[in-house]
Automatic annotation (TrEMBL):
UniProt superkingdom: Eukaryota
The protein, known as: Uncharacterized protein
Pfam families: DNA_repr_REX1B
PANTHER family reported in the protein's UniProt record: REQUIRED FOR EXCISION 1-B DOMAIN-CONTAINING PROTEIN
InterPro entries: REX1-B
Amino acid sequence: MNVGQKSETPEVNKMRMMDAKNLLKKFHELQEERVEAYRLFEEGFQAYIKCAPNYNFPMYRQLVHEITQGFKKISEEIVKIQQDFVELQSMPNVATFIEKIQEDEKQKLELTVKLQLATQNSIDHSDTQSYKEECEDLKQSMKETIEQINEHIEELKYETEDLFSQDT
């Protein structure tokens, strides 16, 4: 991959690659924040369902609100990084991988919420097999989505390896 444009001087190309590296570093930091937010979301959900049937819904609602705000902030920052790769870095391929990751992360969040609802339903209606089956289906979909995210992250690493192979 040719990271720089042919008309750029080596100094300009080097500076742009440094900026691209910083954007990529920030993207990975935000992905780590997202992983941590999912961990907290799952911990909070587990605490919520342990109280069955006397759920503390106000506490869970507050958790969902806080997690949603965190995901929104992360997503907005990643969209900005994606735009910077197109507009400032002239690296639309990198932006495309980031966009794919964003789309899959959105799907993962939707599946997480559905799985939490299905899990609560399977606890509240333990005699209904369909809720347990729904949980298993959602877990499988979640696994596939996570695998897809990881594949896109690997593709992104491959696409950007030139940024890290040149002296800066």
